[in-house]
Each structure stands twice: as C-alpha cells, then as structure tokens.
Amino acid sequence: MARLKIIRCKIQNDQIREQKGAANTFEATINPESYSHKYGLSYSGTTRGSGNRPVGKAGTVARFANTEPEKLDFTIHLDGTGVVPDTGKTTVADQIAKLRDIVYDYDGDTHEPNPVKVVWGKGLTAFFGRLTAMSVDYTLFHPDGTALRAKVALSFVDARTEAQESREAARNSPDLTHVVRVVEGDTLPLLCQRIYDDAGKYLEIARLNDFDGFRALVPDTLLRFPPMR
Predict the structure, then answer these.
(1) Residue 154 has what pLDDT?
(2) Parallel, antiparallel, or unpaired for β 124-141 and 116-120?
(3) Range 173-225: architecture per CATH
(4) What is the C-alpha separation between 103 and 117, in angstroms, rounded?
(5) Rounded CA gap, 79 and 99, in Å?
(6) pLDDT in tens, 21-31
(7) How far apart are CA 125 and CA 119, in angstroms?
(8) Can you tell me the distance from the alpha carbon of 105 to that of 112, in angstroms, rounded to the nearest whole number?
(9) Considering the entire predicted model, what is its pTM?
(10) Could you tell me which of 9, 108, 127 has the C-alpha nearest to residue 69?
(11) Which Pfam families does this entry report, sorted A to Z (predicted)?
C-alpha cells in the first residue's frame, strides 16, 4: 500500500527541489483517513465598502481578481506501541521530532521553514507547500506518562517561487500597465470598460492621470492604465 510521504525541499535557482535521503522524508505508517485539497478564487466588489459599485447602479458586480493559493489539510496518526508494522521501537516523540524538523523548524540558511513536497500514491502525486498549522493531540499514554499514540493535524498552503508564479500565471490585460493614446470619441468610462471590463473605474483613472474632475478627452493625450483589482 502506498504511504503518504512529506519530503523536505529547498529553493535552488528559483526552483523548488526535493532533497534526497531518509533524513529528509517523513513517511506515515498509518495513512490519513481523508485529506482536503482546497481551491479558491477572489472577486472584487463582493464586500461592503469595496468601492466597486458602478455609477448609477444600486448593486455591485463580482469581478474576478485573482486565484488564491491552494490549500491541503489532513491528519496522520502516530503509534509508539510497537503493534503497527514498520514502526519498530520508534517513539511518538521521535516521530514528531522528525516531522517538525522537516515541516516546521526554522532553516538558518534560508531564514524560514522549508517548503515540502507531499505525495500519496497516484492520487496526490505532488503538492508543494509550506506548513501553516500543526496540531498534536496525544491519545494514549504509558503509565509513566510517555505518549504512545498521537494524531497530528497538518495544514499546508501552496508554495511557489516568484519566478514560477510569473511563468504559470495567465496574465491578461488588466494585469499589465497600458499607455493609451486618446482618439476622437474616447471617454474614460469607455476606455476603462475596454481595458478592465469595468467602466466604474474611470474616477480612479482620472485621479491617477491628474485630471481635475471628469472632462472630455483631448485626442492624442496619453493616459496611463495601471494594473488594478
């Protein structure tokens, strides 16, 4: 049976690369009962006071803003009783210490915890993430107080470098700065609708271009339309 693995990674040449060797891999002896892989999207105009209400309209229109980082959550069970195959004499404390070393502890070379790669058979083939939360519940104890079993809840957020984000992001026109030369018949609401798909942004564009209020555009005027959300 395939076992869930958490592998320490390093950022090298703007790439997240897994590190080899047993010391860099935590392997679950008891697989999670389930895991949650979350995807999210953000939209402007969906919160009170967002400033995206179209002029002359009572309501707001939700418009795509950005893709949220993916999130992965699961719980693994640790056993130190010796009854689970392959655990041997490894204590719960030792297992938690190794897990912390890989996903949680501060790396003095990079000045932050390491990213990791989470894999589990053919279903979860490769999730590169950074730990956001780790919670340990101890559930069974030796008479001397030593923990014999524990369950560890782990939460990760998608990890990627700036270079990877730039390569992978699907850049569309609102994410790029435009310099537009005005032609006869152009208006700020019309240009905002064309570039941002939102005519209501014209007041902010007027301010950014040092307009004194809303006025007719003069042909051949150059206007800046920066990235906006």
Answers:
(1) 98
(2) antiparallel
(3) Roll (3.10)
(4) 10
(5) 14
(6) 999 999 998 99
(7) 5
(8) 8
(9) 0.68
(10) 127
(11) CIS_tube
Residue 56: pLDDT above 60? no
User: Structure tokens of 22?
Assistant: 């047993």
Residue with tokens 């992001």: 169
What ranges do the domains of the chain cover?
Answer: 5-168, 173-225
Q: Show the 3-state SS of the chain.
A: CCCCEEEEEEEECCEEEECCCHHHEEECCCCCCCEEEEEEEEEECCCCCCCCCCCCCCCCCCEEEEEEEEEEEEEEEEECCCCCCCCCCCCHHHHHHHHHHHHCCEECCCCEECCEEEEECCCEEEEEEEEEEEEEEEEEECCCCCEEEEEEEEEEEECCCHHHHHHHCCCCHHHCCEEEECCCCCCHHHHHHHHHCCHHHHHHHHHHCCCCCCCCCCCCCEEEECCCC
Residue 149 token pair = 């079993």
Q: Which residue has the tokens 């018949």?
A: 185
Digit-coded pLDDT (tens) for 183-221: 888 888 888 888 888 888 888 888 888 876 556 788 878
- Our CA dihedral for 156, 157, 161, 167, rounded to 10 degrees, sits at 130
CATH architecture type of domain 5-168: Beta Barrel (2.40)
Tell me the residue type at 194. R
**The amino acid at 62:** A
